[in-house]
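Write out the bound-state structure for glutamic acid.
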Amino acid sequence: MQTPIYHGRFAPSPTGPLHYGSLLTAVASYLQARSNHGQWTIRIENIDPSREPKGCIQDILDTLSNYGFVWQGRPYRQIERIHHHLRVADNLLQWGHAFRCQCSRKTLAVCTETGAMGPIYPGNCRYLRLPADQANVIRVLTDHTQLSFTDRNYGVRSYDMASTSGDFVIVRADNLPSYILAATVDDIQQGYTEIVRGHDLLAITARQLYLTDVLGKPRCHFLHVPIITNDQGEKLSKQTHAPALPKWHARHMLVNVLEDLGQSPPKRLRWGSLETLWSWAMTHWDAARIPNCPTITYTDR
Ligand code: GLU
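---
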């Protein structure tokens, strides 16, 4: 059988401009794809338009272009694919792998235990077979399946689904797909062979793979990279006021990222052209050198 061509992606949520932490993930996924002679596409995860500042998507694409990234095809917008996500949720309901749930936040607040992926649903509506008009959300049924996978950077991970995740939401109360459902369906349908993303999503990869298995689809590989934190140990994000990537210092920022990714870029790359920098990075990229600590503190160099 022929080995499938490598297909990777960068999937930013357009809640604000790209920052140093997003750049690190973008660089790692890009270099994995390019050094494997594969394809690299962009998926804009804009399921929730209420969180999307005007002009944000274009700003993200312009920044990636300024930094010298080249992607295949038109960037996907996740919102255009909601009907696919909801169709899969309907199938899961029909096959008995999912159920409608009417529990309010108040009900859940008093009776939940917490596992590695957040509060564990206590199972109240599991077997009620509620009609759509009496339900708030749709959840996937979990059991004591031991979900194991090998992350290319963090090694073997194993989760008992019932006690670390519990029945998780796939369709939210506003009838939009949850992040897990949308990402899983898109990752399957868009045919990615490896997903490179931040360590904060490592644990919920188990939910993504659980859904993939339930749907009977082949799994892809995962490689998580450390997330970048500020001096207070908080993840760089819009909420923690991470500064937007500067427009004019692409080479400087990219060399810092390569250093944080455990590569050893020569100093001269800071002053050469972007083409020289990317060409060096593609030739010398070694994913085995990515640090396998969960976080790296941002340092201004
Ligand atoms: N949209 C997520 C983020 O911006 C990334 C999700 C993924 O790569 O699967 O953190």
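---
The longest strand covers residues 39-44.
Residues 11-13, 45, 183, 197-198, 201 surround glutamic acid (CB under 6 Å).
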